[in-house]
């Protein structure tokens, strides 16, 4: 047996080099040693360490402090958080997702399958305000063409021709089936917006949701109003009969009479594109004695209906919106009557060229205390002079009435001894420099005054001395 030369080194006797971990652990920097040792977990294959593993896992699971709270307490805590955090809170876990769903009260449905599949009820069991307008349309998801309307925006394909063909609206049976499912799962429903339903669908809502107080119904007809009449606690109602280029239906005196006999607790009523006459409005005034606010939007009423407003004894607010006419043949003044409790008369985007109808309207509303005109066509000095019959007016607002002049305004408001607030905006023929001393004295005793009638005059006065706005003048000069 021979020995190797001392100068030769055996491979097994090579100098051992320490690893990076040993260099790190042997370092004298003691502050990092506890960190390294703390992150080392025990060997899971060693049966002796099973107890320590269970203890470690239980410590990590115990980090969710909300597990010790029951659903009611956690629900009260989540309800105190801002609404903007609801989406983020629902992503924490499934429990928080379900609890956040119980906090949602208002929802706009975009997909009708969400109702029929039962996911709506299981996800949001405490809904009180549901809008089904967008969900009642059949939208082509594959199309890049978007059709926008003031009610809805949806995708349409190249075969689309018009709304009147009925292809974009769900069938009435499908809508009724969804309303039945919604009513059975949300008995606390208070507000509902729907289009294209029938009498049966609304009857199911009336039976299952006794707390329903507000209803907005599009594409309404006389037969559908039979289902609305079963909503005994209904207080706010909006009926939309026709919408040009969108859909068409009929609401006549028959439907208004059915409505009046069934919904006797109405407080607010809006009739949009509805037909009718004296008899229908009279029935509403006699039966709905709690009615305080009545709105006519683009109405199709027959001649002589205006006299029926006198039967609304407790009416406080009367609105006309986008009406092409008021009442072309109102009849003699002795048959018009008056609304004794009326306080507010608002006209927005209406055509007031017919002097006979406007005069009759002010006769019926002579007890009014607040008059608002906004962007009304045909309102000149002669038409506006009929408002002088309203002696108790304390608030007047004129906006976008370009035909009324300073003399026409002065002739009316100087006769109102109780006028306190005046608002004149964007009325180009009312000039600041044309105000008489009597009108200036009235301005000084008003409680509130907003006076910006001629925007061009205000712009010219603000640009005075700047050189801008002069025809043919040079604004940029060489320095």
UniProtKB/TrEMBL annotation:
Single GO cellular component term: SCF ubiquitin ligase complex
Membrane-crossing residue ranges in chain numbering: none
Gene3D superfamilies: 1.20.1280.50, Ribonuclease Inhibitor
GO biological process: SCF-dependent proteasomal ubiquitin-dependent protein catabolic process
Native source species: Acer yangbiense
UniProt cross-references to Pfam families, sorted A to Z: F-box
PANTHER family according to UniProt: F-BOX DOMAIN-CONTAINING PROTEIN (PTHR13318:SF124), PARTNER OF PAIRED, ISOFORM B-RELATED (PTHR13318)
Lineage: superkingdom: Eukaryota
Coiled coil (residue ranges): none
Residue ranges occupied by any F-box domain in the UniProt entry: 67-99
UniProt name for this protein: F-box domain-containing protein
């Amino acid at each position: 047996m021979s020995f190797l030369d001392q100068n030769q080194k055996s491979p097994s006797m090579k100098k051992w080099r320490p690893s990076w971990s040993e260099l790190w652990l042997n370092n004298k920097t003691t502050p990092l040693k506890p960190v390294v040792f703390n992150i080392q977990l025990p060997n899971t294959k060693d049966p002796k360490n099973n107890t320590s593993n269970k203890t470690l896992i239980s410590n990590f699971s115990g980090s969710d402090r909300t597990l010790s709270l029951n659903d009611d307490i956690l629900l009260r805590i989540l309800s105190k958080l801002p609404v903007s955090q609801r989406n983020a809170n629902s992503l924490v876990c499934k429990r928080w997702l379900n609890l956040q769903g119980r906090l949602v009260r208002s929802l706009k449905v975009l997909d009708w399958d969400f109702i029929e599949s039962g996911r709506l009820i299981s996800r949001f069991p405490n809904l009180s305000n549901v809008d089904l307008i967008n969900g009642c349309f059949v939208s082509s998801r594959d199309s890049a063409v978007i059709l926008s309307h003031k009610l809805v925006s949806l995708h349409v394909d190249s075969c689309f021709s018009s709304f009147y063909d009925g292809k974009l609206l769900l069938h009435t049976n499908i809508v009724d089936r969804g309303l039945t499912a919604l009513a059975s799962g949300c008995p606390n429903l208070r507000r509902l917006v729907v289009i294209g339903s029938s009498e049966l669908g609304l009857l199911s809502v009336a039976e299952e949701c006794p707390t329903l107080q507000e209803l907005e119904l599009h594409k309404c007809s006389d037969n559908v109003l039979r289902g609305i009449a079963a909503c005994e606690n209904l207080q706010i109602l909006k009926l939309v009969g026709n919408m040009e280029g969108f859909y068409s239906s009929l609401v006549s005196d028959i439907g208004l009479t059915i409505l009046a006999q069934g919904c006797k607790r109405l407080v607010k009523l809006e009739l949009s594109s509805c037909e009718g006459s004296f008899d229908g409005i009279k029935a509403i005034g006699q039966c709905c004695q709690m009615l305080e606010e009545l709105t006519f939007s683009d109405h199709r009423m027959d001649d002589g209906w205006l006299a029926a407003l006198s039967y609304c004894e407790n009416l406080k607010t009367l609105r006309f919106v986008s009406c092409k006419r008021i009442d072309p043949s109102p009849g003699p003044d002795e048959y018009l009557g008056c609304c004794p409790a009326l306080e507010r008369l608002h006209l927005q985007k209406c055509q007031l060229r017919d002097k006979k109808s406007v005069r009759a309207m002010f006769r019926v509303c002579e007890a009014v205390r607040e008059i608002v005109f906004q962007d009304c066509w045909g309102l000149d000095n002669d038409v506006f002079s009929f408002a002088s019959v309203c002696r108790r007016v304390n608030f007047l607002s004129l906006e976008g009435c370009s035909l009324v002049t300073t003399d026409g305004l002065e002739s009316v408001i100087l006769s109102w001894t109780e006028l306190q607030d005046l608002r004149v905006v964007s009325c180009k023929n009312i000039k600041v420099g044309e105000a008489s001393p009597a009108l200036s004295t009235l301005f000084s005793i008003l409680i509130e005054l907003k006076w910006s009638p001629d925007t061009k005059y205000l712009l010219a006065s603000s640009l005075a001395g700047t050189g801008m706005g002069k025809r043919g003048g040079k604004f940029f000069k060489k320095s």
